[in-house]
Write a structure and sequence with these properties.
The protein is of the alpha+beta class. It has one domain. It contains one helix and three strands. The radius of gyration is 13 Å and the shape is elongated.
């Protein structure tokens, strides 16, 4: 899988759970959660990998460079 740079937000919920969120498109929002910030980010990475494996990488995230 190519390297993707996806903007994301990480916040700690009121109950102490960490949440990481990213939008691949205006209609596709992904979330990860965990007991630590790192676990939430890893869970988000897994969600992004699964979504892009299932549906492909959204066109606006792909840049083709000339040879």
């Amino acid at each position: 899988m190519p390297e993707l740079h996806v903007p994301y937000v990480v916040e700690q919920d009121e109950d102490g759970t960490w949440l990481a969120e990213a939008a691949l498109t205006p209609d596709i929002f992904l979330q990860g959660e965990g007991e630590t910030r790192e676990q939430a980010l890893e869970d988000l990475r897994t969600s992004i990998t699964q979504a892009t494996t299932d549906s492909g990488i959204p066109d606006h995230l792909v840049i083709t460079l000339p040879d």
